[in-house]
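Predict fold of J domain-containing protein; 75 aa.
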Amino acid sequence: MTWRAEYREFIRRNHPDRGGDPEAFAAGLAELRARRDARFDAPVVGGADPPRGVRGAARRVRRWYTRRFRKPRVR
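Predicted 3D structure, encoded as tokens:
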């Protein structure tokens, strides 16, 4: 189950407007949000810096051109 589906299911079952306990609801939300935020604790690793100047511009134009005028694949 995805985080969003789990979150929505928790709210459906425990929301105070639907008869749930407000303290338990707040504690459950805090736990779910902590688990969600823990997924993004990994360090961000970037690739090499893109080439600059004429070489970089030539590479960008070449990529654009091949993407723009690529023939569609027939399956």
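The helical segments are 3-14, 22-38, 53-68.
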